[in-house]
Design goal:
Layout lengths: L2 H13 L4 H12 L5 H9 L5 H22 L7 E3 L6 E4 L9 E6 L5 E6 L5 E5 L8 H16 L3
Antiparallel strand pairs: 1-2, 2-3, 3-4, 4-5
């Protein structure tokens, strides 16, 4: 199998929602392609896979769980932090993007949105989404504060 064919297969399997571990197993069992998890992860970062689609699926699951929790009287457990008065809201994705240690999205108080990630070295990356304006200095300070709260977990 050529590298191009292999990469198309990997992109197809990832787009179907399979995990990297599942893709690695299919490559080995069905196509006799031995590949380390790290190699597969690096290749997947270069493929055109709609990673945001996975976040939407998880967000829908989280929203449904939140509705069930509210109906049963359990507190909010969505992974989102931020003020309910229109402040900055940070979401931590349960599906980590390749190359990131943790990732998610943010809606700034100013109304802009962005995707964020922390890599294994602890470097923070922020990519505005769509036509969102560059976040203000206040937005960035609020974001860092809310991100820190969300990553620390419940007090």
């Amino acid at each position: 199998m050529e590298n191009n064919e292999r990469n198309q297969l990997i992109a197809k399997l990832l787009s179907e929602g399979l995990s990297l571990s599942d893709v690695q197993k299919i490559l080995k069992d069905q196509h006799q392609i031995q590949m380390t998890y790290m190699d597969l992860r690096l290749i997947s970062t270069e493929l055109e896979v709609n990673w945001k689609k996975f976040d939407v699926k998880k967000e829908k699951e989280s929203a449904k769980a939140l509705e069930n929790d509210k109906a049963s009287g359990v507190g909010d457990n969505t992974g989102a932090t931020g003020a309910s008065d229109g402040g900055t809201v940070v979401n931590v994705s349960k599906l980590v993007r390749p190359g990131a240690a943790v990732s998610g999205d943010v809606k700034f108080k100013s109304g802009g949105t962005a995707e964020w990630y922390l890599d294994a070295m602890g470097r923070l990356g922020l990519n505005p989404t769509g036509n969102s304006a560059k976040p203000t200095e206040e937005d960035l300070q609020d974001f860092q504060r809310e991100l820190q709260k969300s990553l620390q977990g419940p007090a």
